[in-house]
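Progress note, sequence design subtask.
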């Protein structure tokens, strides 16, 4: 990435040349400046130098300066994070993955919003555009870059993204914001913060809309617009001097368009016409959470958290196929060999094009050839097998999660802290299409983390998570770390950890069948099943990851923060096959390893300037081709934020990644803003320009825009 290297050199050179002669000798002097604290790594508040791993913090100032409209765009600021997009059927859906593997089906990151997991239990994914949280309400995002099953359980295999919303006490008053721009951008936000009794409250309403990609590589208009409306009510109550109660209610409603054809559908033909809304996904999300914190004494605290979530997805359309597709012999042949069914269909299609009766079946086993020849003869000899059969099908699914967790933090001595906890989770998925009814899972967990200061410079840490999963069995995952603190602000770390990912319900427990209702064309039948179906193996093992990391974290008294890490990660028993109803063969036979280095530099240059640089080099290999294709070897970002005075400010950011699915990505973003103070009212006007520096499709060849530039503007008023 020569462009990124030039950017790094040009940015660092002025600071290096202007450094005083004695700079190196004073690197590790202590400062009276308060140290920042991170929480995501171990659930304990720790200084960055004492954390057993790498943590990226995206604060409110950085979020605003970036001009990002959604969370995936912010992840480009995290070293080693891959941001991609889905393919033809779902092109406008962003996906996020750390270091790589199959980026379009990111199943190995735990994502939390105020401690609540938004990782869907049934289809095991994160709908980034459907999280019921406005970006304007995000206070900070902590990203733990590495396995963290020890603290957050299965699915935190490669990292944890913890999103913290603004506290109601810090959100008093009213805020209104409107954003409009190219590509159909039409966003709005309104919030009201107030105090009532012993509590502080914030009610936020927001909406987001855009048109997605312009066209496919065939020149067809891309039908992938999205629209959402969100609500969040947050409250914080002070019950006593040592007790606090926080609760939230959140909801989201919206729709995501889908293209007219799905390559993975069992039907040969569909009858969706331009302008129809068939196949569009209607999404509704609901969440509620409650957290109670009690300080029993200065060295002992307890936290109880309860939350419930529900994801509802509705997607239905009317489709057609020839009557032969519903013949029992076709279903029998599909059960023997799905690929042979495709071969038979190809023979029939060739014969139709040439107006010729193919005299023999495709080559296969004796049983396959007999059954395939019988199907071909039915097509030729029985005209009713060629009549059109139409019906309504759907991919509706409801997913529900209930979670209860008790956490205890105890300082045993001045040098020894223990965090321990117990939790229970119930997950449920309801779908006639995916599960032929309902699948549920119960997960119990016990976890602990011990932090022991052997001396003022040496910190030994160990953690363990025990989980009992009804569908996947029992697991025990450890982590051990040694931190050497040169000073409280500068530390070296040596970390070994293991993590697991349980196979999700779709991989292991699916019973995937498309049922047509309101059928026309089949005498005496008002419903029928498509011949293609898939059933989960039911005995998949957990994926297991072993990670080794050596790193350095330092905070200098002239505003410079640096984090560097080198890593060696290995994933075994990996489930890498694409989940396709026509070819459903998940297994634990795959593997992948990552080796490389990452760095993150954040430099506050006085009161007006802030520089931020990230870079990641990832060497890798994998047994499955999709894991190799969807991993970038070089990636990084660079940012410069400046306060020009008189209310003017700007943010200039560069993002780059090489060969993500064989496609380079480079973009330059500029945000320019002006604040006006009108008595007790503040007004901010801002514009964002995003300029692509490459000429590539995004992740997949069909994800194309008409031009490489996007502009949008916003106006925000607070009073």
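Output:
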């Amino acid at each position: 990435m020569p462009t990124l290297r030039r950017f790094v050199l040009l940015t660092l050179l002025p600071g290096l040349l202007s450094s005083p002669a004695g700079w190196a000798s004073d690197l590790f002097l202590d400062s009276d400046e308060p140290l920042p604290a991170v929480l995501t790594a171990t659930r304990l508040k720790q200084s960055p130098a004492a954390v057993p791993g790498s943590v990226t913090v995206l604060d409110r100032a950085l979020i605003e300066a970036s001009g990002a409209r959604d969370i995936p765009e912010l992840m480009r600021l995290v070293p080693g994070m891959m941001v991609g997009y889905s393919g033809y059927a779902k092109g406008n859906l962003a996906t996020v993955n750390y270091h790589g593997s199959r980026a379009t089906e990111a199943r190995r990151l735990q994502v939390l919003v105020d401690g609540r997991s938004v990782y869907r239990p049934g289809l095991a994914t994160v709908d980034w555009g459907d999280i019921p949280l406005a970006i304007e309400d995000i206070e900070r995002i902590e990203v733990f870059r590495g396995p963290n099953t020890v603290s957050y359980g299965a699915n935190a295999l490669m990292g944890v993204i913890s999103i913290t919303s603004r506290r109601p006490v810090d959100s008093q008053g009213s805020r209104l914001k409107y954003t409009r721009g190219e590509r159909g951008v039409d966003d709005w936000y309104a919030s009201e913060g107030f105090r009532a009794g012993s509590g502080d409250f914030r009610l936020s309403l927001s909406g987001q809309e855009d048109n997605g990609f312009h066209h496919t590589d065939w020149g067809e208009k891309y039908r992938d617009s999205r629209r959402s409306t969100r609500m969040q009510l947050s409250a914080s109550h002070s019950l006593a001097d040592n007790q606090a109660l926080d609760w939230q209610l959140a909801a989201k409603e919206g729709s995501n368009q889908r293209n007219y054809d799905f390559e993975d559908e069992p039907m040969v033909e569909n009858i969706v016409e331009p302008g129809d809304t068939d196949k569009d996904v209607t999404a509704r999300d609901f969440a509620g959470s409650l957290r109670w914190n009690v300080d029993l004494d200065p060295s002992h605290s307890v936290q109880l958290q309860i939350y419930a979530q529900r994801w509802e997805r509705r997607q239905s359309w009317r489709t057609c196929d020839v009557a032969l597709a519903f013949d029992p012999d076709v279903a029998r042949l599909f059960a023997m060999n799905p690929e042979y069914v495709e071969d038979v269909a190809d023979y029939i299609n060739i014969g139709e094009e040439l107006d010729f009766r193919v005299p023999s079946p495709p080559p296969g086993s004796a049983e396959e050839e007999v059954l395939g020849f019988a199907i071909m003869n039915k097509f030729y000899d029985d005209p009713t097998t060629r009549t059109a059969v139409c019906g309504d099908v759907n991919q509706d699914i409801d997913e529900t999660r209930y979670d209860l967790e008790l956490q205890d933090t105890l300082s045993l001595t001045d040098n020894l802290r223990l965090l321990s906890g117990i939790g229970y989770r119930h997950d449920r998925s309801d779908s006639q299409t995916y599960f032929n009814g309902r699948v549920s899972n119960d997960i119990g967990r016990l976890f602990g983390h011990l932090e022991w200061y052997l001396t003022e410079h040496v910190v030994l840490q160990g953690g363990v998570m025990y989980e009992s999963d009804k569908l996947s069995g029992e697991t025990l995952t450890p982590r051990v770390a040694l931190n050497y603190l040169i000073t409280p602000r500068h530390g070296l770390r040596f970390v070994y950890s293991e993590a697991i990912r349980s196979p999700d319900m779709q991989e292991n427990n699916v019973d995937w069948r498309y049922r047509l209702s309101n059928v026309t064309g089949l005498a005496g039948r008002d419903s029928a099943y498509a011949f293609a179906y898939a059933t989960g193996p039911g005995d998949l093992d957990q994926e297991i990851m072993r990670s080794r990391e050596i790193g350095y974290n330092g905070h200098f008294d002239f505003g410079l923060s640096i984090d560097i890490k080198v890593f060696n990660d290995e994933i075994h028993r990996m489930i890498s096959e694409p989940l396709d109803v026509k070819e459903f063969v998940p297994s634990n036979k795959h593997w992948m390893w990552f080796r490389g280095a990452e760095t993150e530099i954040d430099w506050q240059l006085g009161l007006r300037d802030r520089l931020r640089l990230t870079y990641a080099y990832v060497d890798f290999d994998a047994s499955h081709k999709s894991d190799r294709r969807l991993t970038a070897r070089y990636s990084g970002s660079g940012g410069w934020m400046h306060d020009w005075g008189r209310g003017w400010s700007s943010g200039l950011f560069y993002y780059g990644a090489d060969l993500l699915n064989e496609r380079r990505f480079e973009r330059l973003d500029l945000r320019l803003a002006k604040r006006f103070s009108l008595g007790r009212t503040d007004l901010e006007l801002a514009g964002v320009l995003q300029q692509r520096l490459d000429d590539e499709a995004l992740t997949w060849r069909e994800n194309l825009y008409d031009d490489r530039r996007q502009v949008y503007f916003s106006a925000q008023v607070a009073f």
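The two ends are 45 Å apart (CA to CA). Work on this subtask will continue into the next period as scheduled.
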